[in-house]
Every structure is written in structure tokens, then in C-alpha cells.
Sequence to fold (222 residues):
Amino acid sequence: MIYVNCDGQVKWTVAMDIPSLSLRGQSTPVIAHGAAILGDDNGRLNAYFVENGQIIWQQKISQPKGTTEIDLLGDIDITPVVVDDTVYAASYNGNLVGLSLKNGQIEWKRDFSTAKDFIVHNGRIFAIDQEDKISAYSIEACIFNWKQTGLLNRQLTPPVLYQGYIVVGDAQGYIHWIDTLDGAFVSQVQIDSSGFQAAPIVADDFLIIQAKNGKIYTLSRF
Fold:
């Protein structure tokens, strides 16, 4: 991890262990209350002082099980989310967790495996697991709300929240609009047969998504 000043000068660096096999690298860090928080390829969530790069706390949230190298992957590749004094994070072959921002202690955890960023909104977490099941949980003790299993193995993009709906794309080029209250489909339409891989982007009142063939689409409603 490298911290660079606004003038382009490197202020400090932190060397992170890299296992022999990983998904794609460390997560994007999030900055909150003077700390830089990010996951690593060994299933640990790390918090560093932004000022000097010193470690504040480190917590392992991945619990890989099995005998193959794939089974033992435990990367944290998603961007952590900080709300008030709690850090929300998830790992591959691990858990969805809520941790204390102050000391990294786990406040609750739920068995959950993902490599996709998730949404925290209005007291709930909306996340997609490695089988492409979409689930909603309360941020209080991670109480289960609902699960949408109609898009299994569709290689979904990370979700975004747009106009009060969860929106995801898939490898077949469909855009899916999902009700946040119960997980029901509101609209499903194929936009581009080459498929989608990158997460949609919300810009003002528009939803922007790029297909695998390079075409960019701008949507204003479903």
C-alpha cells in the first residue's frame, strides 16, 4: 500500500504479504476518521493511520475450508464500508462482518463468500455471494431480510443503488432492477449481448454501464 500526498510525493508505504495464489489483489482502501482501511489477500482487514502509516489494528475475517488451492483462497478484494463507528467487510471463503472502527473487534459475523463490492443503505446491507445469490441483511447483528436466487451463476456485476432500486448487470447483457424491500424483480431487459462485467455507475440522474465490447450505455429509467 502506498500513500501519496496531493503534490504527488510518497508519504509512506506499507508492504503486504502476498500468498502464492489469490483472486486479484488487495481491496481499494476507504478513509474514515484518520484511518485507511483495506483488506488483503490473506483474509485480513487492516487499519492504518493516514498520517504515518502505522498499524492501528488487524483482524482476520476469512475462514477458508477444504483441501484445494481454490478452497483455501481467502482474499478480501471488496472495498470496506464505514458507517458511523462500524466497518462492514466481506471476504472470499469467509464472512460478512461488522467490526468496531476503533479497535477492529468483530461485533457480528455471518458465513458469506464474495469478491464483489456491496451496498450499505438505510440500515441494510445488499450483497452478492460467489454463486450470484443476492441477499439483504440488517446492519444490526446482520439479521436476514430476503434472498433473490433467480440469477444463479449469471456472473453478476457488483450492485449499485439507483432511484431506490438495486441494479446489476450480467454476462448475458441483461440489466436487472430489484426491489430493495423484498428482493423481487422489477424489470429485466437485455441491453447488449456481449455482456457486462464492470459495475454500473450512477451519475446525477443517470445510470452508466459499459459492455464487454466497449460500448457505453446511459439509462435514465427502466
User: Anything to note?
Assistant: The mean pLDDT is 88. Residues 35 and 145 are 31 Å apart (CA to CA). The domain at 1-115 is CATH 2.40.128.630 (Lipocalin). The first strand starts at residue 2 and ends at 4.
